[in-house]
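agent> fetching stored inputs for the adenosine-5'-diphosphate docking request
agent> found them:
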Amino acid sequence: MFGQMQDSPLLVSQLIEHAATLYPEQVIATKTVEGHWHEYNYKEAALRSRKLAQALLRIGVKDGDVIATMAWNTYRHFECWYGISGMGAILHTVNPRLFPEQLDYIINHAQDQYIFIDTTFVPLLEKLQAQLPHVKGYILMTDSAHMPDTSLKNALCYETLIEQESGDFTWPVLDERQATSICYTSGTTGNPKGVLYSHRSSILHSWAITAKSVGNIDHETCILPIVPMFHANAWGLVYASAMTGAKVVLPGPHLDGKSVCQMVNKYEVDLTAAVPTVWTMLLQYLEASGETLESLNSVLIGGSAVPRSMIEKFETVYGVEVWQAWGMTEMSPLGSLNRLSKQDKKLDYQQQLDIKVKQGRPCFGVQMKIVDDNNTTLANDGSAFGRLMVKGPWVVASYFKSDKSALEDDGWFDTGDVATIDASGNMQITDRSKDVIKSGGEWISSIDLENAAMGHPDIQEAAVIGVAHPKWEERPLLIVVPKDATNPPNMEHVLHFLSDKVAKWWLPDDMAIVTDIPHTATGKINKLGLRHQFKDYKLPITQNA
Ligand code: ADP
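agent> prediction call returned; pasting tokens
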């Protein structure tokens, strides 16, 4: 027997209208591309989103058309999220940090009809536009006073486009399974793949994020999403803010340590989110300037493993609690979050850190398991490791324009990560399956080694890759950026430092000092690039040989 409750669709347009009705005066502040602060509220954001929807209809955009953005986190981008998806079109958030050939590929693959761009990206798209024949026009996210001269075909001004509309518009009642948006994975192997989210998946994911045990977001929260709206949906924070009426601070392109510190202090931000590289910049700035983060309660860090030393610094020096999150574009992106239990909080701090370096427990809605190569489920004992599989209503089922399922026969999605799960359900990523170092039939976790090395006082950033070895197949090479280039750490000292942190046979066979470690478009260490750079590297034959 079915329940007898209303079956009304879950739609993202409801989020902005909810915020406009219940929290009309709540502030949305943006540090604009032009460099000044812009402030308005949910009531105005909703009005302008409706005007945008009307303008899109006027220029011929239809239900199901794909409309791209290449933009920083700003109020106009925020309006695009609601205006485009709300009227039934599909928002494609393009990551401008992708290589030009990847940009060309994804814009053509998605068949974007219009692209909303920040003026920052005009030169990039002017170069690319010849390869994008189906794009009908480019909408520059600025006002008429700041419109640059451009060779872009059919260049329109955002403010001019929407000012002609009244905002007197009723959002269409769509099927909740209809697509809201597309994000492409950064495609470190092969072409990027598109993940097509639905209204339903977006709302369910947003609910999960706001929960007390997850993001703890409500109308009293002030959120600074530094994670870009073009990276895995800004981790759901655009929708979660409107769902709860939270105050929002949008950083535009200003992501350096000083700017972030000023934003936090100016708006009394209490929750912010970004990948570890952003926090390295902020922590360096704080150390050099002596400034503090008075209002900040928690920082959400994900996208790559969070070094223990980073957690410790945030918590013990600046009084900011670190919540490590794990997820992926294919998961909208949230999979798990590390929030200590009441019991965990009674442990001594170093023991708490042992837990905090893990990627945490799945939030309600996500199921997780680890399996071996025969697809047999492994024990949740904290030591067995295997392929991490997930399931849930905001996990991809198939990639955009592919008629093949993205799932295993039993309906689980293989994340490509290798992990352990402990008895309390805390998952820990040991590696991407392709980055694991296979030494003498055993696996060495490059993430664990990097994490340990990053705690060394003279190391700014560390990466570990497997390098061919005549006897052991592969051995770890530690690649480091020193804090002081004129006084890099020596190998002996680093090995001694690592010796009580990892198993002896994991210790790197060699260390290379570099000035810079390459990163991907989503801020992860570019292991593929490093493997290429060090492909002819010959390890000294050590005691491990
Ligand atoms: P990309 O487009 O770079 O693939 P994603 O953000 O979708 O971007 O990448 C997802 C992957 O990032 C995960 O499968 C995992 O390998 C890695 N990742 C995300 N969060 C964490 C974390 N907290 N710790 C370790 N790895 C992480």
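agent> quick read of the result: The pocket of adenosine-5'-diphosphate is lined by residues 185-186, 232, 302-305, 324-329, 333, 359, 415-417, 429, 432, 520, 522, 524 (CB under 6 Å).
agent> awaiting further instructions
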